[in-house]
UniProtKB/TrEMBL annotation:
Annotated organism of origin: Effusibacillus lacus
PANTHER family for the chain: 2-NITROPROPANE DIOXYGENASE, 2-NITROPROPANE DIOXYGENASE-LIKE PROTEIN
Signal peptide start-end: none
Lineage start: Bacteria, Bacillati, Bacillota, Bacilli, Bacillales
Gene3D superfamilies: Aldolase class I
Alphabetical keyword list: Dioxygenase, Flavoprotein, FMN, Oxidoreductase
Lineage: superkingdom: Bacteria
Pfam families: NMO
Protein name per Swiss-Prot or TrEMBL: Probable nitronate monooxygenase
InterPro entries: Aldolase_TIM (IPR013785), NMO (IPR004136)
Length: 323
């Protein structure tokens, strides 16, 4: 195996598709794994039944390893999701736990034979994740699409500070959308990368074409952060609906007042149903690099090829920094 992340997950390239609320379907996870990366079926935005169906689709579409994502504080009750994951555990290699305290779940899923990946966004939480028994720690920077840590640390600062403290492998997430980002993450000390937005813009992802079209058209300045007024940080595509939320936040609403705007169903209507004027869509800052809608398997292979090219060109540093 090529490095510790590849060995742990049994994959060719240390490229992981992050859990994607509403749009992390089975066909996408399988395509990522077929390309040599590690796909994940999301639980967020799905019923336990639909989640199991997506795992079934993924398992039928690939003989390569794949996993699932459980954002711990996303569901009002995790029990049916935990049961669903345990039901399909034999099809899975790993679980990523995000957005909440994973402590009670780690022994449960370890016992089920799954590798544990915990998502964090600071040295303190990364160390805690390692202590809890994470097999690898995913560190997500503020560039990332979706819910981020209110610490708002960027990947460039986060990864070197985390990777020098941890013994388990660190995977970098946030703003990565080409081989340059992959190689940069490794230069900073990561042993793998996790991408979200780029995998939304693929043929297999069940996101609506209207959403994918916006991702292709988007430039570097296309994202904005909402929910800061209630202590949360969610990076989304700029859109009239998202701007409306931001304007409303200026009036300092309570959580209850803001809730009707930020509810997941408003993500669903835009991301899945394509009614982009009526909802918001998660998006990371690397979106300006997305130009085409390709198969997710080809995207993984392209990232690997670009990483080889970029790293070969970095030989020049030996001269630039020669004694
Ligand atoms: C559409 C979308 C939905 C997401 N949903 C989840 C989720 O349900 N659980 C999770 O842990 N992370 C979620 N994320 C974060 C991704 O797993 C990943 O870490 C992040 O997208 C990486 O940043 P990037 O979008 O810049 O590539 C989501 C991201 C996007 C873009």
């Amino acid at each position: 195996m090529r490095n510790r992340v590849c060995e742990l997950l049994g994959i060719q390239y240390p490229i992981i598709q992050g859990g994607l609320a509403y749009v992390g379907n089975g066909a996408l996870a399988a395509a990522v794994s077929n390309g040599g990366g590690f796909g994940q079926v999301g639980t967020a935005g799905r019923s336990p039944e639909n989640f199991k169906e997506q795992v079934r689709i993924a398992a039928e579409s690939t003989d390569k390893p794949f996993g699932v994502n459980l954002p711990v504080s996303e569901h009002s009750d995790n029990t049916p999701y935990i049961e669903a994951i345990l039901e399909v555990k034999d099809k899975l290699t790993a679980i990523s736990l995000s957005a909440g305290n994973p402590k009670p779940l780690v022994p449960l899923f370890k016992q089920a034979g799954l590798k544990i990946m915990i998502m964090t966004a600071s040295v303190k939480h990364a160390l805690k994740a390692q202590e809890l028994g994470a097999d690898l720690v995913i560190c997500e920077g503020f560039e990332a699409g979706g819910h981020n840590s209110p610490l708002e640390m960027t990947l460039f600062s986060l990864i070197p500070q985390v990777s020098r403290e941890l013994q388990v492998p660190v995977v970098a997430a946030g703003g990565i959308a080409n081989g340059q980002g992959v190689v940069a993450a490794f230069a900073l000390g990561a042993e793998g990368v996790q991408l979200g937005t780029l995998f939304v813009a693929t043929k297999e992802c069940e996101a609506h074409d209207n959403y994918k079209k916006l991702l292709i058209e988007a430039k570097d300045d296309a994202t904005m952060v909402m929910e800061r007024s209630i202590g949360r940080v969610t990076r989304v595509l700029k859109s009239p609906f998202a701007q409306k939320i931001l304007e409303f936040e200026k009036t300092r609403p309570t959580v209850e007042e803001l809730l009707p705007y930020i509810l997941g169903r408003n993500n669903r209507v835009a991301a899945i149903e394509g009614r982009i004027e009526e909802g918001w869509m998660n998006c990371g800052q690397g979106v300006g690099l997305i130009d085409t809608i390709d198969s997710a398997a080809d995207v993984v292979r392209r990232l690997a090829r670009e990483a080889r090219e970029v790293s070969a060109n970095l030989d020049i540093l030996q001269n630039v920094f020669a004694e």
